[in-house]
Design brief:
Layout: H1 19-31, H2 36-55, H3 57-61, H4 64-68, E1 73-82, E2 88-99, E3 105-111, H5 117-134, E4 140-145, H6 154-168, E5 177-180, H7 187-201, H8 222-240, E6 249-253, H9 257-268, E7 272-277, E8 281-284, H10 291-300, H11 305-312, E9 317-320, E10 331-334, H12 343-351, E11 356-358, H13 367-375, E12 379-381, H14 383-386, H15 388-402, H16 409-433, H17 440-459
Parallel strand pairs: 3-4, 3-5, 6-7, 6-10, 10-11, 11-12
Antiparallel strand pairs: 1-2, 2-4, 7-8, 8-9
Helix pairs in contact: 1-2, 2-5, 2-17, 5-15, 5-17, 6-7, 8-9, 8-15, 8-16, 9-10, 10-11, 12-13, 15-16, 16-17
The chain binds NADPH dihydro-nicotinamide-adenine-dinucleotide phosphate.
The site of NADPH dihydro-nicotinamide-adenine-dinucleotide phosphate has 28 residues, from helix 9.
């Protein structure tokens, strides 16, 4: 289901905006027709900024709201390549450089058939606030292509990546724009992309990409960071409610980079992950997912989850097309893709007693799902806070590249834990300061927005 159609309920809640904000949104509707994901992401922010605007009228005077919703630059390009039989394919490449107020544009590349202008723009917009929340000096961007690496040979993936970088290289640089991985872009793809960048520029500029392999400029913990960070964020949310992950049954959707390391860290923190999934089905493993087997199947062999169930033995069952959110749990971590958990799924989770939900993926919960969780007083963490550990560790990778240094796994993980605690505190405290204690969506949006907006104010009308 990686090309999941956007459900209508994925659209914004439609809560009324003040006249000024409504005008901003109308301009967006006119300029970005049909771009549902992008429009929802912006609307979610606009719906919570009213009280900020009241406290900070200088934001309005400086036209910040209009500027913050318009990307600084959007690049769309042709990516021609030939497959192993010599047949020519033409894909479309994107890079949306949304905001450089806090640092170089920073955000991943996604290779998936579903990629389009709306999805890249929504991801880039979210990235601006996520990166601001980390407190690190990074702006926001995102890119990708409608190329699907699944089922392609290594040689085909390499030719595609080389063609993609042949255009992208003129737009990026360690002080300009620093891409990383995302869905469909792991270390294999990043290696081919970096190799072509190095060849074209004749520069070993390690800081131009993050998520690199350890032997060629990568950082410890980057691979684990998004999933680990998400589990740490949940632990913090539960701690504020006087409880923890220990002894809890947890469901994690997906079985890619984010999901695998969320499963690993939940187990290390004493929880038990009883199910995970891919776009074809669900594995239910009441004895607890065996993360080493999961890594072997998904990372080493690039096989499907059916192989996990076959080798795991009687404890695990694979359900083709199964419904992961129907499996009882008290913590749910959607870590696959956007709009994978809707209002009905949320209602099922609430009925089964869920107490915390954190978005490992970007916008996996529809607007209706978020509302259901909030009404049921479930601790709900939006992706821009819960999955910010990945980009924060990318910023640590950039620091190491700039100083030609490399840190140990233990030290880097300590930094990650500290960053996730600070992000949690920023969201938690901002929500309370704006009269909405426990509302992490409001807290994350306002805390991220004010950091970006203050920098933009200082930099003048640019
Ligand atoms: P991967 O490509 O490594 O994994 C994606 C996983 O999700 C795969 O197991 C895929 O299955 C599965 N999947 C896709 N669609 C569905 C679906 N509809 N239902 C169930 N499973 C599905 O990507 P990542 O783990 O890197 O990224 C996952 C999410 O996390 C994305 O939203 C991404 O933007 C976000 N994210 C990633 C970060 C990172 O550091 N990697 C950082 C922050 C956010 P299949 O193999 O069948 O396609």
């Amino acid at each position: 289901m990686s090309s999941t159609p956007v459900r209508s309920e994925a659209m914004p809640s439609g809560r009324p905006l003040g006249a000024r904000l409504e005008r901003v949104y109308e301009t967006l509707l006119r300029r970005n027709p049909g771009e549902e994901e992008f429009l929802r992401a912006v609307r979610e922010v606009l719906e919570v900024v009213e009280p900020v605007v009241e406290r900070r009228p200088e934001y309005v005077e400086a036209g910040l709201l209009e500027r913050i919703c318009e990307p600084e630059r959007q690049i769309i390009f042709r990516v021609p390549w030939s497959d192993d039989r010599g047949e020519v394919h033409v894909n479309r490449g994107y890079r949306v450089e949304f905001s450089s107020a806090l640092g170089p544009y920073k955000g991943g590349l996604r290779f998936d058939a579903s990629v389009n202008a709306s999805i890249v723009k929504f991801l880039a917009f979210e990235q601006v606030f996520k990166n601001a929340l980390t407190g690190m000096p990074i702006g926001g961007g995102k890119g990708g292509s409608d190329f699907d690496p699944k089922g392609r040979s290594d040689a085909e993936v390499m030719r595609f990546c080389q063609s993609f970088m042949t255009e992208l290289h003129r737009h990026i640089g360690d002080r300009t724009d620093v891409p990383a991985g995302d869905i469909g872009v792991g270390q294999r793809e990043l290696g081919y992309l970096f190799g072509q960048y190095k060849r074209l520029t004749n520069r070993y500029e390690s800081g131009v990409l993050t998520g690199k392999g350890i032997s060629w400029g990568g950082a410890q913990v980057r691979r684990e960071a998004t999933g680990y960070g998400c589990a740490y964020f949940v632990e913090e949310m539960l701690r504020t409610r006087g409880t923890s992950l220990a002894g809890r049954e947890v469901v994690v959707s997906g079985s890619g980079n984010v999901a695998i390391y969320a499963v690993e860290k939940v187990a290390q923190l004493g929880g038990k992950v009883v199910a995970c999934s891919d776009s074809e089905g669900v594995v239910h493993d009441p004895a607890g997912i065996d993360v080493e087997l999961l890594k072997q199947v998904k990372e080493v062999e690039r096989a499907r989850l059916t192989a996990y169930a076959e080798r795991r033995g009687p404890t695990a069952t694979h359900r083709p097309g199964g419904d992961i959110w129907a499996i009882p749990c008290t913590v749910a971590l959607p870590c696959a893709t956007q709009n994978e958990l809707d209002g009905k799924d949320a209602a099922k989770l609430v009925r089964s007693g869920v107490v915390a939900v954190a978005e490992g993926a970007n916008m996996p919960c529809t607007a209706a799902a978020v509302q259901t969780f909030q009404e049921a007083d479930v601790a709900f963490a939006p992706g821009k806070a819960a999955n910010a550990g990945g980009v924060a560790t990318s910023a640590l990778e950039m620091q190491q590249n700039a100083s030609r240094d490399s840190w140990t796994f233990e030290y880097t993980e300590e930094r990650l834990v500290e960053i996730m605690r600070e992000i949690h505190a920023a969201c938690h405290d901002t929500a309370a300061a704006y009269g909405a204690p426990g509302n992490y969506v409001l807290g994350a949006n306002i805390a991220g927005l004010t950091r970006v907006a203050d920098a933009m104010l200082a930099l003048g009308l640019v």
